[in-house]
Request: fold
Amino acid sequence: MLKKRLIPCLIIKDGLLVQSIGFRNYLSIGRLRFTVERFNEWDVDEVIIIDISATPEGRGPNFSMFSEVSKYCFVPTTIGGGIRNIGDIRGLLNVGADKVCINTEAIKNPEFITEASRIFGSQCIVISIDAKKSSEGSYEVFMNSGKEPTGMSPVEWARKVEDLGAGEIFLNSIDRDGMKNGYDTELIKLISDSVSIPVIACGGVGKMSDFPDAILKGNASAASASNIFQHSEHSTIKAKAAMKKSGIDVRISIPATYLGKDIEIL
Amino acid sequence: MIVIVDYGMGNLCSVANAIRYLKQDVVISDKKEDIEGASHIILPGVGAFEDGISNLKKIGVIPIMEKEVLVNKKPFLGICLGMQMLADDGFEGGHFPGLGWMHGSVKKLDSRGTKLPHMGWNDVDIKKGESLFDELSEDKNFYFVHSYYLDCPEEYVIAWCEYGQKFAAAVRKENIFATQFHPEKSHVTGSIILKNFINFRG
Reply:
């Protein structure tokens, strides 16, 4: 059986790993390598690393930083932030990325998705969609690290990226980011039910028992989070335990599982 | 020295990193001398069958690989496309000849309505007693990403997987091993596979 996945998302700002709140406030944590090494020792299915400084600074990816990561990460790794052209993608795949994550450039130039998936295969191309709820209650897609509105609905954009050749969608709720109030399962379900490619849901996890909601209520293929995985021992192992206990078919890869424990106290 | 054959396709860097993590010497090369002097040969691969065979022919390494693997019986590991190219022929995007080391044909997965490619973690059924799978724990999940599979004689299959249909997850013929999944991306379980391959002494 194909498993549901747990995917920590690591946010890099100005070369350092950070915690993100509402796409506006950032708390520095430290160096990327040590966190990746830890996740590799624990239980993770994939890792997503996004350099959120790249697009605002008008530059491409930091290849040397990412080439270090692939020496310590033995699960599929998706790298994003500042990807503007085929050369950026090729450069990242050459330094060890398995997939790339594109946000702003895909919105500005949708044909880039098709070109990239034709050259590298759709399985390599993840499109990141950042969405915010308006005062009327509808959702809107934002680009450029959540700063610029696009006028598009996330359902409309998600369907379009699938048609253009994207392999997966990485869906972020800007409102829930860093709020620790749980996933926006309404948003996740809206998108997951409107496309047939996998959706990775992110934004809002506050406790381990939030993780199953992305899958069970949101119909996502993978649950992602960022802040909760920092400053906590065995964080991804506990997240897996929460998912497994809710009946989700996940991979458990190491003997320390927390399966005998009450997940409310994790 | 473990040699990863560089024919311009495949996540060579990832495979090399995974081998280095096991504290083994490894080199990525397209040179005949390196393949000739190798203790183990690894053929990774990501992409289409026809391109893979065509690239191998272009760099001219097929004769030396055949000598070292089929005659000198050096341990060989094919990964993903590297497994599929061992077939007699492949039907991806047309009909093309393969290396013919493992026999059988490469066909499109009949996923019975589930989406292709088969991408993600899936568990495999392992044939007992195969050294490639020694010391695996309860967890038998590996990372797959493919739309085609090798349909070869059952006697060579050492692990099965299911996605819409049953297909060979790993095969073996004497010193020739091959996996449809990516051990270099399969975390703990993948690392054990690589370690067992490195320790194979024929």
